[in-house]
Design a protein that fits this description.
Blueprint (H helix, E strand, L loop, with lengths): L19 H7 L17 H14 L13 H14 L1 H8 L5
Helix pairs in contact: 2-3
InterPro entries: IS402-like_dom
Protein name: Insertion element IS402-like domain-containing protein
Pfam family, one: DUF4096
Amino acid sequence: MTAPSGHTPHPEPEPKDLTDAEWTLVSPLLPVPKPGGRPRTIDLRAVVNAILHIQRAACPWRGLPRRYPNHSSVRTYYDRWVRDGTWDRVRAALGAPQ
């Protein structure tokens, strides 16, 4: 691939999203929607993949690639899951260091 003069191409790395087996481990750990609340419209697997991408790439929330849900929504889930311990359980299930 030829880059314009003075520019080095930086292709986006291939996504390393959860496998089906990993998702099977993680999905039961995520909180269920509260009864009577608004129906969930966001794919939680995509949210988990987005958070993992942020942590792997060490990029800012606003730098989240478009293939993932909106960075603001992802950050809201992340903050909630860190507060209630969900994210620690997800990382442990995936074998990530605590």
